[in-house]
Amino acid sequence: MTVPGLAAESPDGFGRMYRRSLSDEPTVPSITTVIAQQPLDLDGWRSYMAAKHVADHPELREALESPARIRQLVRTAVDASHEYARTAARRGDRVHSFAEQLALKALGRANRLEEAREELRINGEEAFGATVESWWESFGVEPIAPEQTVWNTSVGYAGTLDLVARINGRICLVDYKTKGTTRDGRVKPPDDKVAMQLVAGMKAEESLVDAAAGAWEPWQYGEDPLLIAVAIGETEYAAVRVNPEVRKFHWATFCRLRRVWAARVEASAAGRTLLPLPPPPPATPRQPGPADETRPTD
């Protein structure tokens, strides 16, 4: 089950970090923080969302005659693109919570499934919950551990897997991705980077037993699980699996990105990157010496 207290945002701006227990300080970056060291260009998406906001604005025609009003619309458009991202993140949290509660109910454990369903309904997102249930039933999911927190000491990272389950007799590590819908009503597929996220989860060394006590046990499901990403949309789901032949390459990349993160932390600890540079002091006029007195003249 989700243990928010184990993860916290770094006050130094180094992303999300994990602690070994609720009483410890965070010591290692999260899986997603490590992956975020890889450049990801969102400028195109943000520009599109900002331009769309302006184009759809009801006051656009009137604003065309006022440069000041146009500038105001541009500022609100930038804010709108950021708000869209925040809204999508909150929606993803609600869908993930619903999926977690669904697994807890299937395990016969305490759950708040109906509350999670109601939260989706209040926000007009019931279709996402229905899609989760459709995938669940179609694949005959047998949950083992929802929201399983894992740790790797050798490389130095931690993370939380959306679901460990058995499907058709095979151990599976599952990651949900809430996605939008294309114009033809199809859910957008997961991005390739989800493979690195799942491989890092697979390579864990320990799994959480008790957050308050800081109790962990050897990771039991990393031998050769099926790595599955499920895109959850309003109209349908799209399930994909990570090609076993590419796992080693994603793992190698992840380990390099972990070193990049460590280098950033070390560089920050060394001090400021850019220091002020004043101009050099004025040159001191040279005093004439004996050599000047004996120098031949014209």
Work out the number of β strands. Answer: 10
Q: Order of SSEs, N→C? A: EEEHHHHHHEEEHEEEEHH
Task: Give, in spatial order, the strands making up the sheet with the most strands.
Answer: 8-7-4-5-6-9-10
| CATH fold naming | Lambda Exonuclease, Chain A
Write down the domain tally.
1
| Residues in helices, as a percent range | 40-55%
Class in CATH?
Answer: Alpha Beta
Shape: globular
CATH architecture: Alpha-Beta Complex
* Global Rg: 27 Å
Structural class: alpha+beta
End-to-end Cα distance: 96 Å
InterPro entries: Restrct_endonuc-II-like
Region (Disordered): 272-298
Biased composition (Pro residues): 276-288
Organism: Sinomonas terricola
Please explain how this structure is put together:
By secondary structure, this protein is α+β, with helices and mostly antiparallel strands. The protein has one domain (4-269): Lambda Exonuclease, Chain A, CATH 3.90.320. 42% of the residues lie in helices and 20% in strands. It has helices spanning 31-35, 43-56, 60-63, 67-106, 113-122, 126-139, 194-202, 247-270, 290-294; strands spanning 7-9, 16-18, 28-29, 142-152, 157-167, 170-178, 206-210, 215-218, 226-232, 237-241. A 7-stranded mixed beta sheet has the order 8-7-4-5-6-9-10, with helices on both faces. Strands 1-2-3 form a 3-stranded antiparallel beta sheet. The chain is globular. InterPro entries: Restrct_endonuc-II-like. Residues 272-298 are annotated as: Disordered.
